[in-house]
Specification:
Length: 242
């Protein structure tokens, strides 16, 4: 793996390089001290992953990420920042992760593993003629910002004012509506109940759920969303088509 570490603070850059050496000792790592230098490194070296600070003099990290997304094969991006107000912009630029400084080893390790799994070509059609579904959903609260890849979500469950994105390591409360999620991820998620969307790729079985009718068993999670009568036939058809 080829990794570019971008930060205008030398000490922060050195700490990041030490972590990378520990986590991915076989990776080839370059560094850049500002946004312009980062773009030059990407053009000349074509890294697989860019670790990107946000607040930098001149061209900031969000601007760099926007430039990278215009490439035919952009690198994966992990933002490393001391500020939490840029999470939505990070998501718009298809960031794999949004890590708060000081970056913790376990968080960085998980983000790098995630970068190896996601599709690196995750672009909207230029000019705004067409858009693509997000690759991550994001949650932000008093504890900070957390993101998870959509392809790890087993189901979206509507709960009062929020939607819970259920994944093997837990659940993430996100501010999206179930209707918007259904429209955005129509190719990979199917509504099975007024309060539930399930990931077709992670369906383990369709089972009788006693008096409640049918439920969907999902891989690697305990949740089994109920299936309403009106959605049962569509679900069975999509399962047969897999």
């Amino acid at each position: 793996m080829k990794i570019l570490a971008v930060d205008d603070e030398p000490l922060a850059r050195e700490r990041l390089l030490r972590l990378l050496q520990k986590i991915v000792p076989d990776a080839e790592v370059h560094e850049a001290g500002n946004g312009r230098q980062a773009l030059q490194e990407v053009a000349a070296w074509q890294p697989d992953l860019v670790m990107l600070d946000i607040r930098m003099p001149g061209m900031d990290g969000i601007e760099v990420a926007s430039e990278l997304q215009s490439l035919s094969q952009p690198p994966a991006i992990i933002f490393c920042t001391a500020y939490d107000e840029y999470a939505m912009e990070a998501l718009e630029n298809q960031a794999v992760a949004y890590l708060m400084k000081p970056v913790r080893e376990e968080k960085l390790r998980a983000a790098i593993e995630r970068a190896g799994r996601v599709n690196r070509v995750q672009l909207a059609v230029l000019g705004g003629e067409e858009s693509v579904a997000r690759t991550h959903v994001v949650s932000e609260d008093h504890r900070g910002v957390e993101m998870i890849p959509v392809n790890e979500v087993r189901c979206f469950l509507a709960e009062q004012k929020y939607v819970r994105a259920v994944h093997p390591e837990g659940g993430l409360l996100i501010p999206d509506t179930l209707k918007d999620l259904e429209e955005e991820f129509a190719s990979s998620f199917l509504r099975v109940h007024r309060n539930a969307l399930v990931a077709l790729a992670h369906i383990d079985a369709l089972r009788k759920g006693g008096e409640e009718g049918w439920v969907v068993a999902l891989l690697d999670v305990a949740e089994q969303p109920q299936v309403s009568r009106r959605h049962l036939s569509a679900l069975k058809e999509r399962i047969r088509q897999r």
